[in-house]
Q: What sequence folds into this?
């Protein structure tokens, strides 16, 4: 027990320091490296099976492994192998220190990055030394050995320190919201019109996805908390003039407001990794025009604060679509989880080639001169979003009453738009669904389908046609390497 308490105290104190400095908690530094080292199929399985629970489960797994090793160390220390126990604790702390240096993790200076790991290492060694200390005899006749009472008092004291550190970290964690509270939502120069595209059917995805429910897929365990006053974007590379822009300078530029649907390439057919939001941001084309793109450039390599790189076709940023550096999402500053203070939003491309969060660097370059994080892991270089549709209502294996029934969902084909959605009941003919009004080519479109439900088990299948007239393919394909395809269906029981 003593070893586990020592390790827990070290991790709690390290978490407190990480929370105060913005540096990486050693557990998260290790976790990010595990993610980077994991084979592509393992990542795909985690996203598909665990969803947003993958991060906490990875943290739990790392902490459980540490607890087991620490328990062994404590057991050895209690049996007279104190130096071995302390050495194991120091070794675990050293691993966290090394990963804080080499892995992608949170933002911060070198001191901020290393201080949490350093403190964790020191506390781990001291706490293990304390809980494995054996009493010394007060007289020559007094025996030397295990003192249960002293052991329990020592472990309790260490546990109190760890609990206090954990509580302080939890209290300090709320201070990050002050960074967002300082940011005003900018007034766009070119505002979006009123929302007129929503369908009111219980269970259907709302036209605008609330920030708290917007999907999140990235590789960080610790979400960066960046002070907008310290943030800067560097635009360089194959340009005539390098630009360095502060957050306040972005606020002073032309701002547009647009409804844009984002989709993750990891989304399975009918999956949840798609969402629509109203964004406010600076058109990227304006910045590129000011910088002056040189001949021969065909790509932009954008870099997040944690060092993750994304490659985006230059044409997608200059062809007239509303590609922006977003500053606000659904009427409020970007949430930390979605890229605060600034992120990229590019309609029509899957996020892994366009939606850089916590962006700090923007290099105009050529695809032949670099490779990005995800393309190094087997995903396609260019990834236009495929036409997709999803049934939200009824849910799979739901029970509905016989008689008039309704099915509903969403369909999307960013940059092209949706012109038609059809639904098939069992092996019957395709029948047209009713579409919500068009908001624009870059948003999903809600649909409803009324049918006469008869007793028994039935399968509903949906397909969409984009505004160019191209029908959604029924060919099944997994997300890797450039997005899933196939038709979504759901089975319902009618009684």
A:
């Amino acid at each position: 027990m003593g070893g586990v308490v020592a390790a827990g105290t070290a991790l709690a104190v390290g978490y407190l320091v990480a929370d105060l400095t913005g540096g990486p908690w050693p557990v998260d530094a290790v976790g990010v490296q595990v993610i980077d080292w994991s084979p592509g199929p393992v990542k795909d399985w985690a996203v598909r099976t665990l969803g947003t629970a993958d991060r906490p489960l990875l943290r739990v797994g790392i902490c459980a492994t540490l607890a087991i090793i620490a328990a062994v160390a404590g057991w050895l220390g209690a049996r007279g192998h104190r130096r071995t126990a302390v050495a194991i604790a120091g070794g675990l702390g050293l691993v966290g220190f090394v990963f804080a240096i080499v892995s992608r993790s949170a933002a911060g200076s070198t001191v901020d990055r290393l201080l949490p790991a350093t403190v964790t290492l020191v506390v781990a060694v001291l706490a293990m030394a304390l809980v494995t200390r054996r009493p010394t005899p007060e007289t020559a006749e007094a025996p030397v050995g295990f003192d249960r009472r002293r052991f329990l008092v020592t472990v309790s004291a260490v546990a109190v320190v760890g609990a206090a550190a954990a509580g302080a970290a939890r209290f300090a964690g709320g201070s990050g919201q002050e960074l967002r509270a300082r940011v005003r939502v900018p007034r766009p120069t070119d505002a979006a019109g009123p929302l007129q595209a929503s369908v009111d059917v219980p269970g259907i995805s709302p036209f605008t996805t609330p920030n708290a429910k917007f999907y999140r897929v990235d590789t960080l365990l610790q979400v960066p908390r960046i002070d907008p006053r310290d943030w800067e974007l560097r635009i360089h590379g194959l340009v005539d003039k390098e630009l360095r822009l502060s957050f306040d300078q972005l606020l002073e530029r032309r701002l547009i407001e647009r409804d844009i649907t984002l989709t993750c390439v990891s989304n399975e057919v009918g999956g949840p990794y798609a969402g629509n939001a109203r964004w406010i941001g600076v058109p990227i084309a304006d910045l590129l025009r000011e910088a002056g793109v040189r001949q021969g450039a065909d790509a932009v390599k954008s870099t997040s604060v944690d060092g993750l790189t994304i490659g985006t076709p230059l044409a997608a940023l200059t062809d007239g679509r509303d590609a922006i550096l977003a500053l606000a999402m659904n009427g409020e500053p970007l949430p930390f989880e979605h890229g605060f203070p600034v992120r990229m939003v590019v309609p029509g491309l899957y996020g892994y080639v366009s939606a850089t969060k916590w962006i700090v660097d923007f290099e105009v370059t050529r695809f032949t001169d670099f490779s990005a994080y995800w393309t190094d892991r087997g995903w396609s270089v260019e990834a236009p979003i495929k036409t997709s549709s999803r049934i939200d209502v009824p849910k799979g294996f739901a029970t509905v009453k016989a008689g008039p029934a309704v099915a509903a969902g969403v369909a999307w084909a960013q940059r092209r738009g949706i012109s038609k959605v059809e639904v098939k009941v069992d092996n019957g003919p395709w029948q047209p669904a009713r579409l919500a009004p068009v908001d624009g080519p870059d948003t999903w479109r809600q649909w409803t389908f009324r049918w006469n439900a008869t007793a028994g088990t039935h399968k509903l299948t949906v397909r969409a046609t984009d505004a160019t007239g191209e029908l959604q393919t029924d060919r099944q394909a997994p997300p890797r390497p450039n997005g899933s395809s196939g038709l979504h269906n759901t089975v319902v029981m009618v009684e």
